[in-house]
Amino acid sequence: MGPIAGVIEGLDPSSKQMEEARETLEALAALAQTKAEFFEMDIEKALITAGSDQDRRIPIEAVLESTIQTHAFTSSQVKDIGKPIAGALKSFCRGSADEIIDGVATLVTEVLADFLGGSEGSESTLHRYVVLTEEYSIIRLDLRAWQRSIESSGIRKKAEKVSAFVMVKSAVDLRKIGFNTFLYLYRGQLNAMRMDRGDIEKALERAAQIYSKFHEEMVRLQGNGDRREIPAVR
Length: 234
Known about the structure:
Elements (H helix, E strand, L loop, with lengths): L3 H6 L6 H32 L12 E14 L8 H11 L5 H21 L4 E12 L2 E13 L11 E12 L6 H14 L4 H27 L11
Antiparallel strand pairs: 1-4, 2-3, 3-4
């Protein structure tokens, strides 16, 4: 599993069939990039209403950054998706504890492996999001994935599908979510990440510290004349 450009470069330019395959792959590479860029904008647009009556998912305060990857792969390479995903997460969430990153990588890898290996039809998409702590913040990580089967027989020995992945990182708006609600969602996610009980408790304690510190700061600011609304902690 690797960049689409690498598969294109590996095709024999002297073969007429391979020349046609190259043109097909170049078109698919452009399509994958376009899909990724669209997903990036679509996620950011959808995040605007997060936490509203129309979208009850975790609300965000601001979009922080995003990253895009496109790949070409065969069915036998799906099991290798974990390595590039883990690498992307470690560089993308630099302030998160190793056990959190490893847990998120495991969760995302399993979801993507099922998606890439089990999707039927010529084209499909996937959207998931997770929450995690990063230094003194709680962040939301949105993942959008797309895949398309390659029909050209001249290419399928080297690549059966092309895919695009987008991750968008946002700061969770702690003013708009009660701690009990967040705790319920976060604990369920940590369990799904197959973390040790000790690591789960440590992760929950860290999240509680961040949440409490945030609201203490909001109270302090209000005492100094800041007019921002402080929600009740449910």
